[in-house]
Design goal:
Elements lengths: L24 H14 L8 E7 L5 E7 L2 E2 L4 E6 L3 H9 L1 E8 L4 E11 L2 H10 L2 H9 L9 H14 L11 E15 L7 E8 L3 E6 L3
Antiparallel strand pairs: 1-2, 1-5, 3-4, 4-7, 5-6, 6-7, 7-8, 8-9
Helix pairs in contact: 4-5
Bound molecules: flavin mononucleotide and pyridoxal-5'-phosphate.
């Protein structure tokens, strides 16, 4: 069909060296995340790929929006009965992936996942625009639906129903916190000799820092 052999870029914008990194990977994440957020060429720095392993043993990846990060972990919101929700309820694990091409950087995070407290999901749900709240109520995420009109009709009905009242958060919609146990920071370099620094959690307290070959 098409040969892409010559499609390649030289990565040369920056470097990642031990003397300049943070000892805590969340602080390192914050440095890189702030840089990405402030970059006018990156429109959604908080968009990340989330991979989960499904029952056939194959990982499946989709984008979600990171909504908060703390020293404890990374929070995103979704439907607990979705495909990703089902995988997470089975495995309690996921891999989060950020790629910011303009900075020639990727971050790979392996984590244990838990649902966040219901009151926190309530708080976030009600902070969303009303249309997105209704979207979450209307959409049986990842289920087969008969057609597009099915959602549009349900939306119209609910718009009327909740015109003057608060929309209750669906029980199956809420946040997950991904508590990291391994975080790799990757900075593209010339000659494909990229910088890779990996933090691995030891004893639930300290992070071991190592350099990986590119
Ligand atoms: C940039 C971007 C951000 C997204 N953010 C979310 C999100 O925060 N939560 C969510 O449930 N789906 C989000 N989606 C939709 C998911 O990619 C996905 O289609 C949906 O969650 C169903 O995935 P699943 O069937 O694998 O569970 C986003 C999609 C894109 C492209
Ligand atoms: C299905 C779905 N749920 C949730 C989100 C996150 O949106 P919000 O920022 O409104 O929470 C998105 C974003 O694209 C989405 O597509």
């Amino acid at each position: 069909m098409e040969n892409l052999h010559d499609k390649r870029k030289v990565y040369e914008k920056s470097q990642l060296i031990e003397s300049e990194i943070k000892q805590n990977p969340i602080e390192q994440f914050r440095d890189w995340f702030l840089e990405a957020s402030e970059n006018p060429n990156i429109s959604e720095a908080n968009a990340m790929a989330v991979s989960t392993v499904e029952e056939d043993g194959c990982p499946r990846t989709r984008m979600v929006l990171l909504k908060e990060y703390t020293f404890e972990g990374f929070i995103f919101y979704t439907n607990y009965d979705s495909r990703k929700g089902k995988s997470i309820e089975n495995t309690h694990k996921a891999c989060l992936h950020f790629f910011w091409p303009n900075l020639e950087r990727q971050i790979i995070i392996k984590a244990n996942l838990e649902r966040i407290a219901e009151n926190l999901s309530d708080g976030y749900f009600h902070s969303r625009p009303k249309g997105s709240q209704l979207g979450a109520v209307v959409s049986p995420q990842s289920q087969e639906i008969p057609n597009k009109e099915y959602l549009e009709q349900k939306l119209k009905q609910l718009e009327k129903e909740y015109e003057n009242s608060e929309i209750p958060r669906p029980e199956n919609w809420g946040g997950y916190i991904a508590k990291p146990y391994e975080i790799e920071f990757w900075q593209g370099r010339p000659n494909r000799l990229h910088d890779r620094i990996i933090y691995q959690l030891i004893d639930d307290l300290d992070w071991k820092i190592s350099r990986l070959a590119p």
